[in-house]
Amino acid sequence: MIVAQQLANHFRAVYFSGSAWTNSSLKGILKDISWEEANQKVQDLNTILALVYHIHYYVRAQLKVFKEGILDARDMYSFDHPAIDSQEDWELFLTEIWKEGEAYAAYVEVLTNQQLQEDFVESQYGSYYRNIQGLIEHTNYHLGQIAIIKKLIKNSL
After folding, report:
1. By the 8 A CB rule, do 82 and 94 touch?
2. Cα-to-chain-centroid distance, residue 110
3. What is the pTM of this model?
4. Half-sphere exposure of residue 10: CA atoms within 13 angstroms, side-chain side
5. Which domains does the chain have, with CATH numbers?
6. What is the pLDDT of residue 17?
7. pLDDT digits (tens, 9 = 90+) for 71-96
C-alpha cells in the first residue's frame, strides 16, 4: 500500500502543492492566470488553456478506468478544450479539474501492490503503476511548458 500512497502524494504535489524537487504545481502556476491569459496565443505554442486541458484529459481518462473499468480516451481529442469566454468559465473549469484531481489521488492511494502490477485495461497499456507514474511525468513535462508560456505572457505586458 505504501507505493500507492507515495504515487498519490506525488500526484497531489504536482497538481496542488509542489514537491521538493520542482517546488511548483499546476494549481500554483495557474493561481494568477486570467481567462484571457489562459487563451492567449504565444507564437506557435499551445495556449495555457490547451495544455491544462491536455494534462487533465488523461487524469479524467484514468479516473474513468478506476471508476468504470473503461478506457475510451483518444490522443486526437486531448487538446479539444471547451471555450473559455470569461473569468467565471475559467474558474469553473479549474474547480472541476481540482475536484477530479483529488478524486484521482483518492483512487490511487488505496490501490494494492497487486493492483498496481495488473494490466491497465489491456496488456498493451502496461500496468496501473506505469500509467499512474507516466501521468505524473506527463503532468510535470507540460507544467514546465506552462511555466515558460506564463513568463512569456507576463513579461510581454
Report:
1. no
2. 19
3. 0.94
4. 18
5. 2-27+38-155 (1.20.120)
6. 87
7. 999 888 889 999 999 999 999 999 99
